[in-house]
């Protein structure tokens, strides 16, 4: 089993666990990001209050709207990312050693190289998995009281409780979201928001750059204290992942909001503020109608969710990699040639 495959599978496992733990926060955050009503801006509910409102008016299941495609997307996304990250990382390490033989550098992969490696991995990941996240965004932002029938051309059901009880629409599922996206823009609709998402590869790039820099310093410190790299605990990995994700999220959050706006359902009739033709149009309308505040809606929720998810992902991923390498080491024919964590 290759080192890249081990990291890919471990990343997928860590991503799924992190997703299960933080998903309700993701749903609330996506709704906050896609809220365009200026009147509601002045009376924003706190994260917990908004979660309670969703449960009260729509039921617990709406906090987990889109969970299934999200888990599939997370497994695919993390697996693809870590797989290609390890491949590009290995090539960068070989290049660094070659430079050292020529008398340039110390043979280690620098921060700039780590940034490039993470960016390339992120671009591959985005292009392959963007359709899944478009569907997830639709399902997270879908509100029960605005359910539509699918027998006609988007006929709205009266939101009066007595009418809703009499004519209950079918549950809004993955197939409905896929039909909705395809009906709006065809196949290309599944790549909505891909431009800001591609730019957002800087988020994991910054995250990994910070994480590996802090991890390298910690390993060096442990080596000097004669404890060796094995002295790094799961809790320390958790904290390093949290700090790295915090820094990356603060820098790139506006792009995340633009991406969510583009992937959410576009309302073509009525208020033109609710319809974006593309990335540029979304940015212009957000500045015009909401001000720069619009680019930071739900940021506190995102920080809590992403920092927690990033920390859990790193901790679980590193432990899975260690465990897999330990098991493979018992069987020399399948052992992976790689440095210990």
Any overview of this molecule?
There is one protein chain. The protein has 341 residues and is mainly α. It has a single domain, classed as Mitochondrial carrier domain (Mitochondrial carrier fold, Alpha/alpha barrel), CATH 1.50.40.10. It contains twelve helices and no strands. The protein has helices at 3-34, 38-41, 47-58, 67-101, 111-141, 161-166, 174-185, 194-199, 202-224, 234-263, 279-290, 299-329. The longest helix has 35 residues, at 67-101. The radius of gyration is 22 Å and the shape is globular. Mean pLDDT is 78; it is low at 146-166 and 337-341.
Q: Give start-end ranges of low-pLDDT stretches.
A: 146-166, 337-341
User: Could you name the CATH class?
Assistant: Mainly Alpha
How far do the termini sit from each other? 17 Å
CATH fold description? Mitochondrial carrier fold
Fraction of residues in H or I helices: 55-70%
Give the count of helical stretches.
Answer: 12
Percent strand:
under 5%
Mean pLDDT: 78
Largest sheet: none
Coarse shape: globular
Instruction: Report the C-alpha radius of gyration, rounded.
Output: 22 Å
| Order of SSEs | HHHHHHHHHHHH
């Amino acid at each position: 089993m290759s080192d890249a495959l081990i990291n890919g599978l471990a990343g997928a496992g860590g991503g799924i666990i992190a997703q299960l733990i933080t998903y309700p926060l993701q749903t609330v955050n996506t709704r906050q990001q896609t809220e365009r009503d200026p009147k509601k801006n002045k009376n924003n509910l706190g994260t917990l209050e908004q979660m309670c409102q969703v449960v009260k008016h729509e039921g617990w299941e709406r906090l987990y709207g889109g969970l299934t495609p999200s888990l599939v997307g997370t497994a695919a996304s993390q697996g693809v990312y870590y797989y290609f990250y390890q491949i590009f990382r290995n090539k960068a390490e070989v290049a660094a050693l070659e430079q050292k033989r020529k008398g340039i550098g110390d043979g280690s992969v620098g921060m700039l190289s780590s940034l490039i490696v993470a960016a390339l991995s992120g671009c591959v990941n985005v292009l392959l998995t963007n359709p899944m996240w478009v569907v997830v965004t639709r399902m997270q932002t879908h509100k029960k009281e605005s359910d539509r029938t699918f027998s006609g051309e988007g006929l709205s059901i009266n939101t009066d409780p007595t009418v809703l009880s009499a004519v209950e629409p079918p549950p809004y599922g993955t197939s409905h979201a896929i039909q909705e996206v395809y009906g709006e823009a065809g196949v290309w609709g599944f790549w909505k928001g891909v431009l800001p998402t591609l730019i957002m590869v800087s988020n994991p790039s910054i995250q990994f750059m910070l994480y590996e820099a802090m991890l390298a310093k910690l390993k060096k410190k442990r080596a000097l204290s004669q404890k060796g790299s094995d002295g790094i605990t799961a809790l320390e990995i958790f904290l390093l992942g949290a700090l790295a994700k915090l820094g990356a999220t603060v820098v790139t959050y506006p792009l995340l909001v633009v991406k969510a706006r583009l992937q959410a359902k576009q309302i073509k009739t009525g208020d033109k503020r609710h319809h974006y033709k593309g990335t540029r149009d979304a940015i212009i309308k957000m500045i015009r109608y909401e001000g720069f505040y619009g680019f930071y809606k739900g940021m506190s929720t995102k920080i809590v969710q992403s920092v927690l998810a990033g920390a859990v992902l790193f901790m679980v991923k590193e432990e899975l990699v260690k465990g897999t390498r330990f098991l493979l080491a018992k069987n020399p024919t399948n052992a992976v040639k790689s440095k210990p964590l």
